[in-house]
Write a structure and sequence with these properties.
Elements: H1 23-31, H2 33-38, H3 44-52, E1 60-61, E2 66-67, H4 69-80, H5 84-92, H6 97-106
Antiparallel strand pairs: 1-2
Length: 107
Amino acid sequence: MANTTDPLASNVHGTNPQYLIEKILRLRIYETLYWKEQCFGLSAEALVDKAMELDHYGGTWGPTKKPTKFITLILKMLQIQPDMEIIEEFIQNQDYKYVSLLGAVYL
């Protein structure tokens, strides 16, 4: 299940939800160590812990356009489609501002 969408996930706009992230960025995310080591086999419950570790947001950075952890977690959320209750808790979180932003961007 490294790069495949959860079979129980619903389509978005009639297509795979991961395709909302453009192909080049998606491929760069798949190549990062963070994706391979930290996001492999990540469940919705473990996603909350990873989201609390965020200390910045963005898409890519640096001259080589490396994907940030934030956009990597967005792709993971598109892949596993956590329950709406989890997303609502992300948005209502007052302690971690990047967790709230992650939920809002996903929604």
